[in-house]
Amino acid sequence: MGRAALRVSVDPGRCCSSGQCVTAVPEVFDQSEDDGVVLLIQPEPPADLRSAVRTAAAICPGRAITVHEP
What we know:
Strand content: 15-25%
Strand order of the largest sheet: 1-4
Shape: globular
Structural class: alpha+beta
Largest sheet: 2 strands, antiparallel
Mean pLDDT: 94
Number of strands: 4
Distance between the termini: 14 Å
């Protein structure tokens, strides 16, 4: 049986537009061209990106990223 998918959510209201998440995992996060606020482009990233997503959440200065573990 496969592992359940890791899910990610973001709180744009907490985002300070630092862009560290985009630098860490551009496959999962992007930034709004208008104000630089985080955009979640892959809420259930593949297994090979799990570690990088956890790192992005840990380094987010606004704590705008939440990782939901199975």
